[in-house]
Amino acid sequence: STTMQFMKLFELLVGVRDDIYFYWAIPNDLSKEARAEYLEHDHIKYVEIEQKWKDRNVEYRRLPAEYSRILRNDGECWDWDVMVTVRTPLIPNMRAIASSYRIPKSSRKKKIILIEDMMVCTKKPTVAIGDMEAQDIMLVTGYLGADVVLCPAYHQKQWALEIAKEHLSFSHVNAIRKKFREVSHLCLEDYKQRGLKTRHRFKGGRKMNVAMVGRLERFGMRLDDINEILANSFIMGSDKIHPFICTITAGEAFVDTGAIEVRHPKQKEFWKICREEMDLTIAFSIDVELNMSKLEPTLFGVPTIAIRAPWSEAMFGVDYPF
Questions:
Q1: CA distance 41 to 10
Q2: Which of 7, 71, 170, 176 is spaced 20 to 30 Å from 277 by Cα?
Q3: Quick one: CA torsion of 283, 286, 292, 298, rounded to 10 degrees?
Q4: Confidence of residue 106 (pLDDT cuts 50, 70, 90)
Q5: How far apart are CA 158 and CA 296, in angstroms?
Q6: Terminal Cα-to-Cα distance of the chain (whole angstroms)
């Protein structure tokens, strides 16, 4: 999802200016298929970073040795002006690496834009953390080190300010408040042009296609409950209901595949499923950010039944009827 955002950022910027160049850090062990997904352009230089762990929680906190080679003021990418990152806890260290020992304040001439797509803190009920106090301090100092924090999950801004109040002075809390921008990924695509569900709207005469979309996370997605709902729907009404799951998670863990179909579609294939097959989605997550897998079916005209929670009220609105 981050790669998709960066691709869109590149397309938008090169569309308005021809003097913008990009250093793009990517894993050094991508498969040929995965590497082929990245754009090739004269204005992009890909910088390969070793990725020792296949765990996004570890990589989120780990400072690769290559960062020193790339970011420092006499490094390989010394002339970078603006950084866009999702790695909140690494920002203070990035600032220190990028500064000159003789003129340390000069690092602030370089701007850091943080996209807060995976807030890791004690307020969040569905994220793995290590030392609780240390992780919260890493979070708020990351916000202080950034110039702008783009927050797509509107209910999480309050969490950030509450944690900041526990560990920082009032002036620092106020500085974080001013850096936060509540934003939406929805501006990145024109969903109406991609086709609303008009010809394929459910009117009876066939099975109703009921879907769950998202990662197969047993706790965070309440997957046991989802599995029970979809499996029982099949058992009680297999002649009327076709339940299925769309996920990027490999495998079919915790899913009754005798009753529920599991699909692993790519993005455009998923959009086609939303337009032409999906009649209803259910979303019972404990907590998510601005989750595109939850929103995109709705944008194509598929009703979503969502559990009432801070994330769903922030995403769909307090007066959302379902």
A1: 10
A2: 7
A3: 30
A4: confident
A5: 25
A6: 26
Q: Are 93 and 126 in contact (CB under 8 A)?
A: no
Q: Which two tokens stand for residue 188?
A: 């990145």
pLDDT, position 144: 96
In the structure encoding, which two tokens stand for residue 319, read together? Answer: 């007066």
CB 243 within 8 A of CB 231: yes
Name the one residue in this structure whose structure tokens are 């010394």: 78
SS (H, E, C) 11-48: HHHHHHCCCCCEEEEEECCCCHHHHCCCCCCCCEEEEE
Q: CA dist 113 to 107, 145, 219, Å?
A: 14, 10, 31
Strand pairing class (208-213; 241-246): parallel
Query: Which 3 state secondary structure label does DSSP give 103?
Result: coil
Interaxial angle between packed helices 267-276 and 292-299, expressed in degrees from 0 to 180 and rounded to the nearest 10: 40
pLDDT in tens, 267-320: 889 999 999 999 999 999 999 887 778 889 998 999 999 999 999 998 888 999
The answer to whether 49 touches 27, Cβ cutoff 8 Å, is: yes
User: Any residues with CB less than 8 A from the CB of 204 and at least 6 apart, and which?
Assistant: none
Average pLDDT score over the chain = 90
Mean pLDDT along residues 90-98: 92
3-class DSSP assignment, residue 87: coil
The runs of H, that is alpha helices, within 106-152 are 132-145
Q: Which residues are 182's β-sheet partners?
A: 151
Give the residue among 217, 132, 146, 183 at the shortest CA–CA distance from 314: 183
CA–CA separation, 322 and 319 (whole Å):
9
Strand partners, 149: 114, 180
* CA-wise closest residue to 47 among 31, 28, 72, 75: 28
